[in-house]
Design brief:
Length: about 220
């Protein structure tokens, strides 16, 4: 179940999604908030495994273990990450999300039909996996936009959140704010889960349940 950070929106000085969007689109010092979350996750991973990276053979084994459909989805996600990365730099965020329903507050995610949960989790994992092998930065907002596109094509409803928090040491923003985006389907956060509970939701974007499916950002 989604949990909202304890700090309230007025306390951090953000009353809408504009600041959060700006921080997600153009994070300071490389990866911004995502760097903070990713760095802690990576350190924890190295501590637990004692290795710096998966051997190439392990990655190949994981890839070959995928079904043909999953391999195609992984390749398509990789291509979409590049397209959405370019779109984020060239197109307004309002246009990128024009076919989604915007909610200024956090809300309960729509329930999934039987069988949709596993599909949603699989898509979230494949997008995250593809983001780790792009030669460009594929940060949290790019990932959730790609995951949303893939989910909507399969008529799987969901929503993604934009959140902000103070105190990330890897930000040059004068307000000291950092931002993160994560995506939820049903009861599961399928992309951007790591560290999301540290952020206060400032905007929610949903699809499904009568809302036009898919963000036609690139049309």
């Amino acid at each position: 179940m989604f949990q909202q950070a304890a700090v309230n929106r007025s306390a951090i000085g953000v009353d809408d999604c504009d600041k959060a969007t700006q921080l997600c689109l153009f994070p300071s010092r490389g990866n911004g908030a995502f760097y903070c979350i990713g760095a802690f996750a990576k350190v924890a991973s190295l501590h637990n495994t004692g290795t710096q990276a998966l051997p190439v053979t392990n990655r190949l084994q994981k890839f070959t273990a995928l079904t043909t459909r999953q391999k195609l989805t992984l390749a398509y996600a990789w291509l979409l990450l590049g397209c959405y990365r370019a779109a984020i730099l060239l197109v307004s965020f309002k246009r990128l999300t024009r076919n989604l329903q915007h909610h200024p507050q956090a809300r309960s995610a729509p329930q999934l039909l039987p069988g949709q949960r596993d599909e949603a989790i699989m898509i979230g994992r494949l997008v995250a996996a593809a983001s780790r092998i792009t030669p460009w930065q594929s940060l949290c907002l790019t990932q959730v936009l790609v995951a949303q596109r893939l989910l909507a094509r399969r008529d799987i409803p969901g929503q993604f959140y934009l959140g902000v928090r103070r105190g990330c040491e890897r930000t040059d923003d004068p307000t000291g704010l950092s931002a993160h985006a994560w995506l939820q389907c049903g009861e599961d956060i399928v992309n951007g889960r790591a560290g999301h509970e540290q952020f206060t939701v400032v905007s929610t974007f949903s699809w499904g349940e009568g809302v036009s499916s898919g963000s036609e950002a690139l049309s």
